[in-house]
Structures are given as structure tokens and as C-alpha cells.
Amino acid sequence: MWSATLAFPSFVASSTSLPSYSKPRLPRIQASLSNYPLASKIMVRNLPFSTSEDFLQKEFSAFGEIAEVKLVKDESMKRSKGYAFIQYMSQDDAFLAIETMDRRMYNGRMIYIDIAKPGKRDFQQQPRTSGPPEKLQVPEEPASNEVADCWY
To answer: Any idea where the RRM domain is (predicted)?
Structure first.
């Protein structure tokens, strides 16, 4: 579904007029305090309630090396809530899994896969709060009997 490509137009010119460039590189999005690229975590939605983490590990490891599988469970019922997060070691593996598995039928249900949105846990810091803006202290000029020379 999602794919990102970066292409540069080729110019015909002599090698002395233009510097030589290597192949274009895609930008890597890196979380500030994480060891994995930010876009390498995917969210799988609409899973059957009987899904297990081991099954997800087995199915999605075909697309690349998986760092973590987190199946979100209901605390009181101890069963799946129907969605999971899968952390890949690289962005390319995550994009391959999205392109291959998105909108596929699984146990009679169509599953949806997207890149997971980062939360505050991904950066391991509390959000900063701020109060009202500080008042600027403007120095007062001594009163003088001069009239300002300005036209409005």
C-alpha cells in the first residue's frame, strides 16, 4: 500500500561541469532513544481474538528479522483485543510486510497493517508542559518633554 521512492532526474552534461553523485539514499527516520528505525514498527489490526504472539512471530518473520512482537490483551478476559505491534530490525522489512500482508484474509477476517504511530513510550520521556508565557520586562525610558518625530 505505502511505498516511498526517491528519484532524481538524470541530466546529460559533461563530467567536468557537474560533480559526480553516488546513488540516491532514502532518508532514515530514527527515534531519538531507540535502537531501531522509527518506521520499522507496524500495527496489525482486526486480528481474530484467538491469535497468539507465537503465531504472529512465525507468520511475519518471513519478511525479515523481528525484534519484538506485542499482542495487546484485555486484562480481565486475558484474550487478544484484536491488534498487535511488530517491531522489525529495519524499515525495509516493515515495508515489505505492509505491502504483502495488508488487506489479506486471515481466519475469515481481513487484517489491516500500517506503520505504528510513535507514542510517548517510544521516546521514554514525559511530555513537557508549559505555563503561561513569561511577561517581557521593557525598561522604562525617563520622561522627557521631547515630542517624538513620527508621522502616522
So the answer is: 40-118
